[in-house]
Amino acid sequence: MNNSLFEQINNLIASNQNIAIAIGANPNLDEMAGALSLYLSLSGLNKKVTVVSPSVPRLEISSLVGINKVKTNFEGDKGDLIVSFPYKDGEIEKVSYTLDEGYLNIIVKAGELGLTFNERDIQYKRGQGGVPSLLFIVGTPRLSDLGALFNPEELKNTTVVNIDNKAENQGFGDVLYVSPKLSSVSEQIANMLISLGFKMDLDIAQNLLSGISFATNNFQDTQTSSLAFEMVSLLMKKGAIRKSVIKRDSLDAQEDDDDFFTPPLREDRKDVRAQTFEDKFFRQSQPQPQQAQSQRQPQPQRQPQPQVQPQQSSQQPQPKDFKDKKNPPSDWLTPKIYKGSTNI
């Protein structure tokens, strides 16, 4: 970025005490993060700084530091009351005041020449206490996006700095910092603050990193600029931490999806539980097939006495007396059917 542009902005900041930062209606996280970071940094220069937006900040950007400072109009009173008297040398000796029953009386004491003006020559006007002398408009491509905040008559003596990265920006303002090739407003603000050596604490760094992450879809957007990565590196050195940020358009799409709030896992588990219960009930209500004795684990000590004993060969000993394990009895593999006391 041209250093002369930053130098021009630096001179404007140094020569103006009443500064405002404006964002259009319904700003996204990137635009608000850039504006609030600029607000926090300029506040550290002992400037009177106001950040304004025509709409109340949305919930998804409420985590940004300084979000509670956003106003819906230019902060400040209506300005000082200025009483102007025509003046000539020697005509006014001094000016004093008195308090009388709740009224402030301004006393203009006449000099040797006397006062040549009368009451009709005295002027009363308000100073523009709430109107900034320097206005930064951040992430707003059109002045109409500011609504009633931008009053050309009231701001006719205000210097406007336009900071934006949108290609449709209309190029308004006295100083333009518009860069469509950059991927976020936050990286523009970060680059300016770092280049000018302005305040960059942890809160400012975290705001800017969150804004860049939002604008670049967590750095997955193919249009992410090299300046974004460069600024992220510097912001993380300041202590900022990368956090997962969900783009607003993704949330809108999910809210429009009828199945978005349907918990498929819970329904699947419910189906499984129902199916398991039905299968269990079905199995319990059906007669169970007999199992072959050979498929069971032999437990000689618990074998019940059968009602009908299988015929044993006289030439073969009983299995419990059989010692030759290599030559088992001939009926060893024959299924043994056990009949209990209850007929099924």
Secondary-structure map:
Elements: H1 3-15, E1 18-23, H2 29-43, E2 48-52, E3 70-71, E4 81-84, E5 92-100, E6 103-110, E7 123-126, E8 134-138, E9 159-164, E10 175-178, H3 185-196, H4 202-215, H5 226-237, H6 248-256, H7 264-285
Parallel strand pairs: 1-2, 1-8, 2-3, 8-9, 9-10
Antiparallel strand pairs: 4-7, 5-6
Would you give an account of this structure?
The protein is an alpha/beta fold. It folds into 2 domains: 3-77 and 130-252, inorganic pyrophosphatase (n-terminal core); 81-126, no CATH class. The chain has helices at residues 3-15, 29-43, 185-196, 202-215, 226-237, 248-256, 264-285, and strands at residues 18-23, 48-52, 70-71, 81-84, 92-100, 103-110, 123-126, 134-138, 159-164, 175-178. Strands 3-2-1-8-9-10 form a 6-stranded parallel beta sheet, with helices on one face. A two-stranded antiparallel ribbon has the order 4-7. The chain has a two-stranded antiparallel ribbon with strand order 5-6. Strand 1, helix 2 (29-43) and strand 2 form a beta-alpha-beta unit. Helix 2 (29-43) packs parallel to helix 3 (185-196) and helix 4 packs antiparallel against helix 5 (226-237). Residues 251-278 and 291-295 have low confidence and may be disordered.
In CATH, the topology of the largest domain is named: inorganic pyrophosphatase (n-terminal core)
Share of residues in strands: 15-25%
Number of domains: 2
Kindly, what is the distance between the CA atoms of the first and last residues, rounded to a whole number of angstroms? 92 Å
DSSP E strands, number: 10
Shape: elongated
Structural class: alpha/beta
Name the poorly predicted regions: 251-278, 291-295
Q: Quick one: CATH superfamily of the largest domain?
A: inorganic pyrophosphatase (n-terminal core)
Mean pLDDT: 78
